[in-house]
Amino acid sequence: MIFSRRDRVALPISCVAGAGFGYLAVQAGFGGVVVGGFYSLFIIPLIVCFVAGQRKLLAWQACILSFVFSCIAQTFSVPGSGMADALGEFRLLWISAVVLSFPVPAYYYFQRAKKRKSYRVEVFLSGLLLLVLLSRLPIDIFLIFALGVLWIIASLGKIIWDRRLTA
Asked: Of 43, 81, 156, 158, which has the highest C-beta tally within 10 A?
């Protein structure tokens, strides 16, 4: 695997930023949610978009994992915390950071997927998967159904529009 110059810069930056924000999140106490949210929503996308080169997904996960491991390392310094606490914290922090910073890697994935013929099917199925995940939340089921119907209509409209332009 060959790393570009930008990737060689992005990986140390992402590790240092993750460790620094992880330290700040633990030191902030209950304010750590704000620090982690700010890091996940703003800093990670900036590093992935403007610093990383070809290995954007690697830089994305390096940002997240360095943040999570920094928080867990400081958790072990508290007396009485065990492996079960660390595993629970790992799952919570990793999942929340991935979900909050996911739009940037999804954007790059769909940009690359536009070149394939199955692009519309992938976008359609990922939208339906997102609706299924949303249906697990305590939201009105009719709202989810209406969003599903709108998603299907929008997908069909996009297909018809693209076929009209190519004809």
From this structure: 43
Cβ atoms of 53 and 5 within 8 Å: the answer is yes
Amino acid at 22: G
Residue 108, CA atoms < 13 Å, CB-side half-sphere? 16
Q: Are 133 and 148 in contact (CB under 8 A)?
A: no
Instruction: Quote the tokens at residue 38.
Output: 């700010």
4: which DSSP letter? P
Helices (H), the chain: 5-27, 32-38, 44-46, 56-75, 83-101, 103-113, 119-135, 141-166
- Tens-digit pLDDT profile for residues 38-97: 888 888 888 888 888 888 888 888 888 998 888 888 877 777 777 777 787 788 888 888
Number of other CB atoms surrounding residue 15 within 10 Å:
18
- Cα–Cα–Cα angle for 110, 111, 114, rounded to 5 degrees: 80
Neighbours of 7 (CB within 10 A): 18
Distance, CA of 27 to CA of 41 (rounded, Å): 20
The SS3 call for residue 139 is coil
The Cβ of residue 166 has, within 10 Å, a number of other Cβ atoms equal to 6
